[in-house]
Specification:
It is a single chain. Helix content is 38%, strand content 15%. It has 926 residues and is α/β, with parallel strands linked by helices. The protein has a seven-stranded mixed β-sheet with strand order 8-7-3-1-11-12-13, covered by helices on one side. It has a six-stranded parallel β-sheet with strand order 30-31-29-28-32-33. The longest helix is centred in the C-terminal third of the chain and has 21 residues, at 645-665. This is Bifunctional aconitate hydratase 2/2-methylisocitrate dehydratase.
Length: 926
């Protein structure tokens, strides 16, 4: 295609976007920008004026192909090799300063280390403001300095003093805000960035149109007009902001509507959003707010009402009554004082904001985001070491909390092992700010395009060699190979494969495409329980190591640097007593954990924002993952399984066999990452067997925020997490805290569809499906489905094992549809028949971006998601419901077309090998 045709296609696309109320799409391709530059050089070209604007204002920075072309042309202008009336050499330097690394740094170094002294000085002045430098860049600077180049010395001296940070404007002492209540109750990121719009996340302006409703978007615009000197603060009234998925796209959307533009020359990249929640901000969402230099506030504007004697006032349901401490009703004008760290209404002090304005968070706000601080610290350290001087004290020192004589929790042990740049020999405890080495990184496919953009924007081109393993999944787009997936996924896989990540799809088409659920793969490739894992999904919750769900940007940072920065979280210890009843499934124990915890602490969720250290050592990694996975819905920061030696060894042997299957398929890369993981697993097994380093345990004198003991004896019925869609208190809807026994429903609540799938199920769950079908066939002579049952295995390995063991034959016998990789669906299913569907491995209904239940359905699912509109949307007459339960409950509900009675359930599961758990005989401590 000729370049002029590329430009014509771009203009055509612009007209199409204009019809949708959108601006031109930002340019990332080299061919298009090359044609634009050709038209700029032709002073008589009729497209020249538009081309100049596209070049200046609409080209993506970093390491995009377009950024390389732009940087080179700006270099020509600075050297006088090209003359553009609208872009003077001084303006060319200004544009380079906004390009954030990559080719722009290469050009600036060429000019700074060149022969023209005046140009070198101007280039050096710009370089002093830049932080996204990599080894190739710092090696050039170091070599020039060592050869006596004075400009290089000047740049290094500036870096050592961190002038790129110190010369930035200070954070305003007072920030005026006007409140906007986005919703009452917990606000899931689905409200801010719906799953069914995942395909557009990398097109920031287009994706921004899906946040909340058009009416709410207009109301925000109206507030900005009415209060031009104030920022709009988005609020979750009587709830937590940003629960559910760890979406950079959600924060990007909030910033797009309420923040400020990061640079006039970078389109649709906004920063500095301000968000608040009565119960604070979800931990993973708050990390993303930090990425954008925003502010997250725990409003605490509703508290539990107390009697004069200090006892809680309860309603007729026995729930604590809340009373309003102060109002944040939409349109309330408040003032944030960043020096006093207080929130005011006029002169009245409302709350302390110290947690929102720690020294580290203030640095993120000043720098316009956490990336700039992370990279800034690295460049300062490099410069000081190169100059042979001590690192000047510029940034706030990392907080190092040490407690004499106190033992360590499991997470404290892991963070101490992986800590980078801390005081040698000093033990760190919860509350410490720590830079840590990241061992395993996961990128999933609906956030992956944004992760690729983030990597380009921070000018990263190759994975950090310190990362043990990284995986790019294809599970969130596995169900439907539609035009959106066909356009996005191959491009993503090629980028990540080139970057050094193991990819689910082979860009060269050599190995079979894998759509295995990312969490299952990460759970297998984590081969050390001392590991730290970062993944682009809230359910990055491994049963080995400690895993943190993260936004696409934090994933990019981990891939590029091999590091992450965060405070060491507090821990809540969970142990078990009693014995599981034979008809119960381990999923019921998971739900009961949440219910019993809330009961023990008068409705306070002690898990929120903390590590759940679960002593579950007799369960293998696959089964234990059912618990750790659910901890995202418990609003925990992460979870750690304390395992027995023999159990951990068996789990590692299983992981090795699955990694070997990936190798046999041809998925390993030239760095032999997968083989390296097997070697690490073998080493870890040897350490455990020889007693050199037993399985991770906490110290017996470790300190916990709380300790929860779950009584297995009282779990007598299957437990269901209910979205409670008709609760009179709106704030109680769509939380994961309403856990009900099966008998609550009286055996007559209609179920329209059953779903067995998502990351919450393992091989045993699929065997339970086949065993139940066999059981019911023997009892009734035949099995008839009164509602559809959708079954999606999490991995291909599981299907292969089920085929070998004979279970898949029975599933096929009762299925009316079986997926085919040779003929993938290219349209999402919208209607279902009363039969079983064997769907492709992947997320399927749980993600809600492709497959969905029919609107208004009541769905019974093994999934984790019950948020409004996620699995099922509402109709005008009926709200969609996504109830969450164990596999046997889901299967029986689909067969009956209703929630079964406890008697029907017991009969159906008689003799079936359900997922069982027995507590360890003694507490595991170091």
């Amino acid at each position: 295609m000729a370049f002029d045709n590329i430009y014509k296609d771009y203009i055509k696309e612009i007209e199409e976007r204009k019809a949708l109320g959108l601006h031109p799409k930002p340019i990332d391709g080299a061919e298009l920008l090359s044609e634009i530059i050709t038209q700029i050089k032709d002073t008589d070209n009729p497209n020249r004026t538009d081309s100049v604007k596209f070049f200046i204002y609409n080209t993506l920075p970093g390491t995009t192909p377009a950024a390389g072309v732009k940087a080179q042309f700006l270099k020509e202008i600075i050297l006088g090799e090209a003359v553009v009336e609208e872009i003077s050499p001084a303006f060319a330097f200004e544009l380079l300063s906004h390009m954030k690394g990559g080719k722009s740094i290469e050009v600036l170094l060429d000019l700074a280390l060149g022969a023209d002294a005046a140009i070198a000085k101007d280039a050096a002045d710009v370089l002093k403001t830049q932080v996204f430098l990599y080894e190739a860049d710092t090696d050039r600077l170091k070599a020039a300095y060592e050869s006596g180049n004075t400009i290089a010395k000047e740049i290094l001296e500036s870096y050592a003093q961190a002038e790129f940070f110190t010369k930035l404007p200070e954070v305003p002492e007072e920030i005026k805000v006007v409140t906007y209540v986005a919703a009452e109750g917990d606000i899931s990121t689905d409200l801010l960035s719906p799953g069914n719009q995942a395909h557009s996340r990398s097109d920031r302006e287009l994706h921004g149109l899906c946040m909340m409703t058009p009416q709410q978007q207009q109301e925000i615009i109206d507030f900005q007009t009415k209060f031009p000197d104030a920022s709009v603060m988005l609020i979750a009234e009587k709830g937590t902001m940003g629960v559910g998925s760890s979406r950079m796209s959600g924060v990007n959307n909030v910033a797009l509507w309420t923040g400020r533009q990061a640079s006039p020359y970078i389109p649709f990249v906004n920063i500095a959003p301000i968000v608040g929640g009565t119960n604070g901000i979800s931990p993973i969402f708050l990390t993303t707010v930090d990425v954008t230099g925003g502010i997250g506030i725990d409003l605490k504007n509703w508290v539990k009402k107390q009697n004069e004697d200090g006892s809680l006032v309860r309603n007729e349901k026995g729930e604590p009554v809340l009373e309003e401490v102060y109002s944040v009703a939409t349109g309330t004008v408040l003032t944030i004082n960043t020096k006093k760290k207080k929130l005011y209404n006029g002169d009245k002090e409302l709350i302390d904001l110290s947690k929102s304005f720690t020294p580290q968070k203030l640095e993120f706000i000043k720098a316009g985001g956490s990336y700039a601080v992370v990279f800034g610290k690295k460049i300062q350290t490099f410069a000081a070491q190169t100059l042979g001087i001590a690192i000047p004290s510029v940034f706030a020192p990392s907080r190092e909390v040490s407690v004499e004589g106190q033992g360590l929790t499991a997470v404290e042990k892991i963070f101490n092992k992986n800590a980078v740049g801390v005081t040698p020999g000093k033990l760190l405890y919860a509350g410490s700010d720590v830079r840590v080495k990241v061992n395993i990184v996961g990128s999933q496919d609906t956030t992956g395009l944004m992760t690729a953009q983030e990597l380009e924007s921070m000018a990263a081109t190759v994975i950090s060699p310190s990362v043990d393993g990284a995986y790019q999944s294809g599970c969130h787009t596995a169900s439907v190979w539609d035009k959106k997936a066909q356009a996005n996924i191959p491009k993503l896989m090629k980028f990540m494969n080139d970057f050094g990540v193991i990819t689910a799809r082979d860009p060269k088409g050599v190995y079979h495409s894998m759509t295995d659920v990312i969490h299952k793969v990460l759970n297998d490739i984590t081969v050390d329980e001392w590991a730290i894992i970062i993944g682009g999904d809230s359910h990055t919750r491994m049963s080995k190591g400690v895993a943190f769900g993260a936004d696409s940007g934090t994933v990019a940072l981990a891939l590029a640097t091999g590091e992450a920065s965060m405070p060491i979280p507090e821990s809540v210890k969970v142990t078990f007593k009693g014995e599981m009843k034979p008809h119960m499934d381990f999923r019921d124990v998971v739900h009961a954990t949440q219910a019993q915890m809330l009961q023990q602490f008068d409705g306070e969720n002690v898990f929120q924002g903390r590590i759940i250290e679960v002593h579950i050592g007799t369960l293998l990694a696959d089964q234990a993952f059912t618990f750790t996975d659910w901890t995202a819905e418990m609003k925990a920061k992460a979870s750690i399984c304390i395992s027995q030696d023999n159990t951990l060894i068996e789990s590692l042997e299983i992981a090795k066999s699955r990694i070997q299957i990936m190798i046999d398929k041809g998925m390993d890369n030239h760095n032999q990452v997968l083989q390296g993981l097997i070697d690490r697993a073998n080493n870890r097994i040897t350490e455990i067997q020889t007693g050199t380093k037993p399985a991770l345990t906490p110290d017996n004198n470790a300190k916990y925020y709380a300790e929860v003991v779950i009584d297995l004896d009282v779990i007598a019925e299957p437990m269901i997490a209910d979205p409670d869609v008709n609760n009179d208190d709106v704030s109680k809807r769509y939380t994961h805290d309403t856990i009900r026994a099966i008998s609550y429903y009286g055996g007559d609540k209609k179920v329209d569809l059953g779903f067995v799938g998502s990351c919450m199920v393992h091989k045993g769950d699929l065997k339970i499906v086949s065993q139940m079908l066999r059981n019911l066939e023997e009892q009734q002579g035949e099995v008839k489905f009164n509602a559809p049952l959708v079954v999606a295995a999490p991995t291909y390995n599981i299907i292969d094992e089920l085929k070998a063991e004979g279970d898949w034959d029975l599933l096929q016998k009762y299925s009316g549809f079986e997926f085919s990789d040779l003929l993938p669906k290219n349209e999402a299913r919208t209607t279902y028949e009363n039969m079983m569907y064997l769907e492709r491995p992947g997320c399927n209904l749980c993600m809600g971006n492709q497959e969905k239940a029919a609107k208004g359905d009541t769905v019974m699912a093994t999934s984790t998601r019950l948020f409004q509109g996620r699995v099922v949307e509402d109709t005008e007459r009926k709200k969609g419901e996504s109830l969450l339960a164990s596999t046997p409950v889901v299967v029986l509900s689909a067969i009956l077309g209703r929630i079964p009675s406890i008697e029907e359930y017991k009969t159906a599961v008689e003799g079936i090998d359900l997922t069982k758990f027995s507590p360890a005989h003694k507490q595991l401590v170091g």
